[in-house]
Automatic annotation (TrEMBL):
Coiled coil ranges: none
Source organism of the structure: Spongiactinospora rosea
Name of the molecule in the record: ABC transporter substrate-binding protein
Top-rank lineage group of the source organism: Bacteria
A Pfam match: SBP_bac_1
Keywords from the UniProt entry: Signal
Keyword Signal: yes
């Protein structure tokens, strides 16, 4: 796997916002599609670029009108909306969801429409695999596939006497660095997310680095697999950093937004995240000193692995064949072509770079082969406005790690159960790791069994 710097613009948007798009209706022969995937109001350059992207698409496809949507994935309401047909023609979901949606036949297969694109066969198979069924039918298009790493504040590293160009590569080193940051700066040395299903999500990646897993298949059935020595070691690490080292600060109930907001304010030394969180730190939470942002590969403790994921775009079963075909044209135009065509990538990079608040060149996993990605990198190079050397440890260290996917079945429900485990360890000094994992495994197995009925 070769990791390279890519355009992080509308081709890899991270949130949604309404208020732009095309007219809500067209003539009798016009197909109107509603699409998720616009950036927040705080991402002004991304929003402006989205408007232009819609206009360009409609100009090239005069029979299609695109309506932007504010909808973002909410695990508490998504299933009900989907079952009731109350979703857009293009939906955006985390990589935990496609396999379940495919198995329940809630999304449309798109292979026929996608394969009509000249460069379809050049997709990186790794990024299409989570969007495919056992027969190879493909159901969507990925957006900014990622691999988790260790985000760190270079300024706090310097103040703590640590080398900002050499982030920790083992969890033992993370523990040492976190203690130094806490002692020398008074800031939280390391923070682990713990709510909104993100505690379980981050425990999963921590388990992978220790050689553990969260779910496995036995006899054709998926079962919980986290009541094991590697996961106990991972939780014990958190417990010791929290209570023995006192290096995790006082605020323990955090989701990703909380952590990035605090990081942007210079209050956190390290957290598990992706290069893409740079955008949130800068554009959503106003990180003034973006030169302090650094990222290395996910630290290890015997697992030699990191969690991969990302957002994906799918077309629900409720969409008509006509609208599904229009939706695929939009997906290719908006998310595939800019990651393949150097000219398109350069144009979008140039547009984004015109605004000083933009972030062009933040690395991602390549959607196509390495040779094509190299062409993209060269095309956008004149417009890159982030310090790529601060992402270099991640770029150089991640290829040596095995990419592990998220749990294949009921991932969000698994994460929800594991949230309670993480919260207990971080808020109760006397919490029993063994008891917490044993109960959680029983609870998750009950959910998995119910889903099989």
């Amino acid at each position: 796997m070769k990791l390279t710097a890519g355009l992080l613009g509308c081709a890899v948007l991270t949130a949604a916002l309404a208020g732009c798009g095309s007219p809500s209706s067209g003539g009798p022969e016009t197909v109107v599609i509603r699409v998720q995937g616009m950036p927040p109001a705080t991402d002004k350059p991304g929003l402006e670029q989205f408007k232009k992207m819609v206009a360009d698409f409609e100009r090239q496809n005069p029979g299609i009108k695109v309506q932007g949507s504010t909808t973002v994935f909410d695990p508490l309401t998504f299933s009900a909306k989907l079952a009731g047909g109350k979703v857009e023609e293009v939906i955006k979901v985390p990589l935990t969801e496609p396999q379940g949606l495919i198995a329940r036949k809630q999304v449309r297969p798109l292979t026929k429409e996608l394969s009509a694109w000249t460069h379809y066969k050049e997709f990186n198979p790794q990024v299409l695999r989570p969007l495919s069924d056992a027969s190879g039918e493909v159901y969507g298009v990925p957006q900014a596939p990622f691999a988790q790493g260790l985000v760190y504040n270079r300024d706090l590293f310097t103040k703590a006497g640590l080398d900002p160009d050499k982030p920790p590569t083992t969890w033992a080193e993370v523990r040492t660095a976190a203690k130094a940051i806490a002692a020398e700066t008074g800031k939280a040395g390391f923070v682990h997310e713990s709510k909104s299903n993100q505690g379980g999500w981050q425990l999963t990646m921590l388990a992978y680095t220790h050689g553990g897993e969260v779910q496995r298949e036995e006899g054709g059935k998926h079962v919980a697999a986290f009541n094991t020595a590697p996961v106990k070691q991972a939780l014990t690490l958190l417990k010791e950093m929290r209570w023995t080292d006192d290096s995790m600060g006082d605020s323990q109930l955090n989701d990703q937004n909380d952590v990035i907001k605090r990081f942007a304010a210079g209050e956190i030394g390290m957290y598990m995240g992706t290069p893409g969180t740079y955008r949130l730190a800068k554009m959503t939470y106003g990180m003034e000193n973006t030169d302090a942002f650094g990222i290395g590969p996910l630290p290890q403790a015997g697992g030699n692995a990191t969690l991969t994921g990302g957002d994906v775009y799918l077309v629900p079963k409720s969409a008509t064949a006509e609208k599904a075909a229009a939706a695929v044209k939009w997906l290719l135009f908006a998310y595939a072509e800019p990651q393949y065509d150097p000219a398109a990538a350069a144009q979008r990079a140039k547009e984004l770079a015109a605004d000083p608040e933009s972030a062009v060149g933040v690395p991602t996993l390549p959607m196509f082969d390495a040779a094509q990605q190299t062409k993209i990198d060269e095309a956008i190079k004149p417009y890159v406005n982030v310090k790529l050397e601060h992402f270099r440890p991640w770029l150089e260290g991640t290829p040596a790690l095995t990419l592990r996917p998220e749990p294949a079945v009921l991932a969000q429900q698994v994460y929800s159960v594991l949230d309670t485990v993480v919260q207990a360890v971080l808020t109760n000094k006397d919490a029993s790791v063994d008891e917490l994992l044993a109960k959680a495994e029983t609870d998750v197995n009950a959910k998995l069994a119910a889903a099989r009925k």
